[in-house]
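Supplementary Methods S3. Input chains for the assembly prediction are listed below.
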Amino acid sequence: MKTLKNIMLRYITEDWYRLLEVLNLYTIMIVAFFAGLLGSLTGLGGASIMTPILVGLGFPLKHSIANAMISVIATSAGSSAAYVRDRITNPRAAMYLEMFTIVGGIIGAIITLVTPSVALYFFFAFFLIVMNLYSYYERRKARIYHEILDQNIDRFSRWLGIYGEYYDHSEKRSIKYVVKRAHIGGPMMIIAGVAAGSLGIGAGAFKTSIQESILGLPTKVASTTSNFIIGMTGLAATTVYISSGYVNPIIAGAMALGTTLGSLLGSKILPHIKINTVRILSIAITVYIIAQMLYKGVSALWI
Amino acid sequence: MDLEILLSLILIIGVLLSLIFLIAGLFMYLVSEGPRLDLGIEFRYLNLVSWIEAVPKMCMYQRLLSIGLIILILTPYIRAVTSFVWFMYHKDKKFSLFTLFVIIILTLSILGLIRVF
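Predicted structure tokens for the full assembly:
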């Protein structure tokens, strides 16, 4: 057995050998499926859960990020199709914001390729902490401003003229909205794009918070438009990762299939789960992800 | 046709097609190689175009998986191109320019002109 290991280590690195021992196609598909399921239930997204689990099992971080980026495109396209058709997603707002997120996504992917993995572990944990604090703070503020249709729209937003109306089934009425402060919200999306591209995640919660708190979009429009944008950011970052050699069609295929099926099941289960259960699940998973990435970062520093 | 319906159709068709190829590719891989991960093969392409060009030379499971992933990766690009055509047709110059900017950046990236050397 030791001889076999020595022979294999001539061709592959220690990291890849450990991967062969622990991970196989079934493991990746199972992890991707449950990550997609939990990501859909909690709103964290499948990739941000999948990457820390795979890294914990010995999967190299940059490989995980590059391959997970493709699954982000799959879950985004799969879950946003219905919301676009039902006119909850605002395609015009998406087109405007995508100009910024794709630039951020490309910058993020380049950052990952030139940054040592040890720094990425800490960046992953740091981003999740900041994103959660920002989302929590802005959501509280958004509740106060909720549904106040500001008539004093800035000149740039008036020029853009992005507005919309959707029927809210839970409130049984139509809700009108207008995009405001687009000159701030747009460039802010570059940061969201950098985070998504560099970490191989959708960064949907962060994008939703920006749209809600700065652009003044209603929560449902913000979250569905964010979901729609995520796929485009994923594409921009993926094109950079392809030339890096980190994208493996077998691993990327298993991840994309697993997370898509998991997120589809999650969207069916979600309406039947209590909001408190979702919150507890979300907090527990976020704490796990942060702890896992910090642990890997500190371990890498010590070695 | 409404832009929303058009985009929704593109997303559904893109995802369904890619999932069919991915399922077929993974099944073929499991049948021919078993569940172990074939990490000895290097998948380094200059850009997305060179990946597409390499597809006919691949073995069956690699070909199916690559087609599935390429369809998936190109789905948002196709929706950007469709949006551009739709905005042009409806003489919406502002959003035509926005989508054109997105298409130009993505095209440069797909052609491998934006990458780490």
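The mean pLDDT of chain A is 85. The radius of gyration of chain A is 20 Å.
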